[in-house]
Prior knowledge:
- The protein has helices at residues 6-13, 25-32, 78-90, 135-140, 144-155, 166-180, 187-197, 243-257, 273-279, 288-294, 314-329; strands spanning 2-4, 36-43, 46-54, 60-65, 93-99, 115-116, 125-130, 159-162, 203-210, 213-223, 226-234, 262-264, 300-303, 308-311.
- By secondary structure, it is α+β, with helices and mostly antiparallel strands.
- It has a seven-stranded mixed beta sheet, with helices on both faces. A seven-stranded mixed beta sheet has the order 8-9-10-11-12-7-13.
- The N and C termini lie far apart (44 Å).
Amino acid sequence: MSEVSLTEWNQFLQGQPNAHILQTGEWGELKSAFGWKAIRVVNNDVGVQILFRKLLFGFTIAYIPKLAFRDKRFALSEEFWKEIDNVCRRHRAIFLKIEPDVWSDDDISHLSSFILSKQNIQPPRTIIVDIRGSEEDILARMKQKCRYNIHLAEKKGVIVRTWDDLNEFYKLMQVTGGRDGFGVHSLEYYRRAYELFHPTGICELLVAEFENKPLAALMVFARGKRAWYIYGASNDEERNRMPTYLLQWEAMRWSKARGCEEYDLWGIPDENEATLEAQFENRNDGLWGVYRFKRGFGGELKRAAQAMDKVYNPWLYRVYLWRMAGRESG
C-alpha cells in the first residue's frame, strides 16, 4: 500500500473500468492546475485519488469525488481506510469529504466514522439516459417534443461536428452563464480540460453550427459504460433552430459508439420528481430551465448518495462550516 505516481495510477485504473471520470488521473491533473493537489493511493485492486485544497495556516480540506469502487461497491478494507486517514493527517486535513459513486438508495450505513455532510460539491441530482439498443430505441424513449426538435434542427440546417476552438467555446460559456445565472470557469480551465482528456479519446468537444456560425457546444466525457455531459453552452441566436437538441443527440451517439450504455445529463434542481414536474413550467431560476430541457430526453431521475465528512479537527471543522454558511447567506 503506497502513494503512487500519475502513470501508476492510470495503470491501476486500466483494471477499474467502472471508475468514475472524476477519479481519473486527468481529472486530478486538471484540479491540480487550479488550486488542488492530487494524491493517489493503491493497494492491490483498490485505490483512491484524494484532492487537497490549502486553507490558511497550512491546513487543508481533503476531498474524494466519486470514490473508485470495484463493481460500484465499497471495497476498501479497514486497513485501507487507516491509510487514507494517515495521508489526510500528513497533509493537515481538517476533514475528509467523500461523494460516493452510488445512488441515494444504496446502503452506505457501514461508513460509521463519517457524518452526513451539509454540502455537496458535485450536483447531487441528475437524469440518466439509457443509450442501449438501436438509435430508434433511444429516440423512442424520449418525449415526443424532444424527438421533434432533434429532427427540426436537422431540417433547419444545423450541423454538429467535432471542434477544437476553445476561445469560441468560452465565449458561449460566458453567454450561457450570464443568461442562466451559473458560474463559469476560466478559459484556461476549459483549455486544460480539453488538452488533458481529448488526447486520451475519452473526451470530445462538439459544436452545433448554422451556416458555419457556432450556436451551441458541449464537452462530453466517456469511460467504460458511462458518459457524462459536464460542460455545455449556447448563445441567444437562431434558437428556433433547436441546436441544443441535436447537439445532445450527437453526443449520445458519440458515447454509444464508444461502448457506453448510459449518458449522465449532470445536474438538475435537487428536488423530488413530483416537485420537479409540478413546477418546471413556471420556474426559470437556478437549474429549472435546465431541467425543462433535459427531461425531454426520456432519462431516469436519480440522486447520488449524500456527501459524507470525516472530521479530524472538530473545532476547525465548525469554523469552516460557519464560514461556508456565511458565504451562502451573503
